[in-house]
Specification:
- The chain has 247 residues and is an alpha/beta fold.
- It has one domain.
- The protein contains five helices and eleven strands.
- It starts with 5 loop residues before the first helix and ends with a helix.
């Protein structure tokens, strides 16, 4: 565990009883379908009116969401949903050097099994559209070299009465700062905007189909993000269906 993580493990264990309910926000126990390894989408290039590439803009992200990205952010995890009601998505990591954004890596992924929403509610099966900071990480497995504060705890483990394909969903997680308190373990139960607004929305390991609200990726993708995202670069996730992001 990383330095200062002892209190995190204690906090995570204390909320284990609440975690079983909260974990349901991160997994779909319905039909499975294989997920891909590559990421062909999200590779488009932002264009100016003259049709030339504009490296100062993240591809597929319109002014509304671009303006919500903190000026100090130098890492953006863009989640491009295939459609408003689709569970299929593509995740692309962009890094900024000077005024320009560069595509670092991309992966196939899944989001909420019912797609996306701008007004997420607990249990709606949709992932929230928006721009959110990424501050904390954790999981069942040992810290793989995370740049973000990492809490290792067995409290993250999916219940064994879930489908076996979901047992490793939370081996690694990165908390999406939606309706949570930053600087706490990802499974902290606090909900500043109320429990009806949902919570425990994470990046986590993929099980081959849609989630209840989280975004899921392959284990290598999660390891890469954990080792690459760092607080000094102020990482954020920009997530939603393509039409919403482009607005």
């Amino acid at each position: 565990m990383r330095s200062g993580g002892a209190w995190r493990a204690t906090a995570a264990t204390a909320v284990f009883g609440l975690l079983l309910t909260a974990l349901a926000a991160c997994a779909d126990l319905g039909a499975q379908r294989p997920g891909g390894n590559g990421a062909g989408a999200g590779r488009g290039t932002a264009r100016t009116r003259t049709g030339t590439a504009d490296p100062a803009r993240i591809p597929g992200v319109g002014n509304r969401f671009r303006e919500r990205i903190p000026s100090g952010s130098r890492q953006v995890v863009a989640v491009y949903g295939a459609g408003r009601n689709s569970a299929e998505s593509t995740v692309v990591l962009y890094t900024r050097r000077g005024p320009a954004w560069y595509r670092a890596r991309g992966w196939a992924a899944h989001n909420g099994k019912k797609g996306w929403t701008t007004r997420h509610q607990e249990g709606d099966g949709r992932s929230p559209v928006g721009v959110f900071t990424l501050s904390d990480a954790g999981g069942v497995l040992p810290d793989p070299g995370s740049g973000l504060p990492y809490t290792r705890s067995a409290a993250f483990a999916a219940p064994r009465w879930w489908a076996r394909s979901h047992w490793h969903d939370f081996d690694y997680v990165i908390a999406i700062d939606y309706n949570r308190v930053k600087g706490t373990p990802p499974n902290d139960p606090a909900r500043p905007d109320g429990r009806s607004r949902g919570g425990n929305i994470w990046l986590h390991l993929d099980h081959g189909s849609g989630t209840s609200a989280c975004v899921s990726l392959s284990k290598p993708a999660m390891e890469y993000l954990l080792r690459t995202l760092t607080p000094d670069r102020h990482p954020v996730v920009v997530m939603g269906d393509r039409a919403a992001l482009a607005a």
